[in-house]
Amino acid sequence: MDALFNPRSIAVIGASKTPGKIGHAILTNIVKYGFRGRVYPVNPKYDEIEDLKCYPTVLDIPDEIDLAIIVIPAEQVPKAVGEAGAKGAKVAVVISSGFKEAGRADLEESLLEYARKYNIRILGPNIFGLCYTPKRLNATFGPQDVIPGSIALVSQSGALGIALMGWTIVEKVGLSALISLGNKADIDDADLLEWLRDDPNTSVILIYLEGVKDGRRFMEEARKTSVKKPVIVIKAGKTRRGMQAVASHTGSLAGMDSVYNAAFEQSGVLRAGSLEEAFDWARLFSTKKVSKGENTIIITNGGGVGVLATDACEELGVKLLDPTEDLKREFMAYMPPFGSPRNPVDITGQATHVEFEGAIDVAIRKDIINNIIVLYCQTAVADPIKLAEVLIKANKSTDKPIVAAMIGGEKVSEAMDMLKREGFPVYPTPERAVSSMAAMIKWSMKRRVL
After folding, report:
1. What pTM, to 2 d.p., does this model score?
2. C-alpha–C-alpha distance, residues 445 and 448, integer Å
3. Burial, 343: exposed, middle or buried (Cβ in 10 Å; 0-12, 13-18, 19+)?
4. Mean pLDDT to the nearest integer, 327-344
């Protein structure tokens, strides 16, 4: 598996000079994203591509090959896998489609026969590739400029995975890895969990899942992983029609949703209800923090958003701390007489970034407080950019999880972009901030008993 993420040399079988061809996009991404190893295009039609010498077959390359990327018609893939294996490649990434998902299970089995003969692992087929940012490896036909970070995204859907690559760039979400699984003929979610569990560059694993091959092994690897880092799953195929769609999409058996829910609960997996929710949670987990307890405080400059957050906390089981009289007095130093030192701590619309900073500092210093939720409504007196600077500084000064929700106009959007670039978990609504904190608390408590 290490050759998949840390190859010294790559052969692109089916590389192309023609823009718009998948073989051209993958080779270009590998080269221009800055892969530091050796790259060998393979295509008998060309002498060179992208200023790289091109070889008729992988067997003609005068070097050892760790990783083979295969982008040729499905009927030619089994032979190409055999040649890559004969050359000593340890992993073949099969981009090509037209296998089990298209009714050609026989072709997929032929591919696996060659793989078994030469002891070569297979990622795919029917995938868009993989990306591992610590090694500057982007072997996909998706967007080129993936932002480095600590979130590993595993997707059984190719089109969805490519779309999410673009979305993470727009939303300033940093990725450590992005792996497309497709038909999972060989390498599956459990294999990736086993490797990513010990990857120091990954702090959270997010999986788009349609079905699993070996439920028992998936649960075991997920449990072992969840002790070390969170595993978030978006499970598709919850309904009868959804299960039918899964079967036609990747040939997977979706299985009963209630069975998956029970398995996820037992293994410590966090199941997200949507893509938005999954990435919201991942933003917080990418800070690599762990909650030490359930006591949560809300600090807000708006009563309304405080009430919304309180409702969300009640619905999601987030325990709001009842402040002691001494703690109330400390919070009161940062609010006018008509503010509220209860929880939510309402420092009112008169608060500037200075009052926010003071109240947040109290929450950080008090051991009884484990988690901090900051809510901001744009006002004329509180500069959102200055508040963003306060939040970044506070987040770096403590191991307590901190999230924020910011509501307002253009300047608030600018402040939120600033926070995202710094890896601070910020959201456009209080409910999304609370949902993320609820996931953090649930995982932090659950990992203790796995």
Report:
1. 0.94
2. 6
3. buried
4. 98
Nearest to 81 by CA among 57, 49, 100: 57
Under 8 Å between Cβ of 98 and 71? no
Q: Give the burial class of 333: count Cβ atoms within 10 A of its Cβ; 0-12 exposed, 13-18 middle, 19 or more buried.
A: exposed
Estimate the share of the chain in helix, then strand, then coil, as percent rounded to the nearest 5: 45, 20, 35
pLDDT bucket at 33, cuts 50 / 70 / 90 = very high
Distance, CA of 256 to CA of 253 (rounded, Å): 9
Give yes or no for a contact between 3 and 187, defined as CB atoms under 8 angstroms apart.
no
Give the residue ranges of DSSP H helices in 171-271.
189-196, 215-228, 240-250, 257-267
Domains of the chain with bracketed CATH = 2-285 (3.40.50.261), 296-446 (3.40.50.261)
User: Which tens digit of pLDDT belongs to each residue from 287-331?
Assistant: 999 999 999 999 999 999 999 999 999 999 999 999 999 999 999
Rounded Cα distance between 53 and 278, Å, is 43
Q: Phi first, then psi: what are they for 377, rounded to 5°?
A: -110, 130
pLDDT given at position 240:
57
* H or E element in which residue 139 lies: strand 137-140
- Is 394 in contact with 272 (CB distance < 8 Å)? no
Half-sphere exposure of 302 toward its Cβ, with a 13 Å CA cutoff? 18
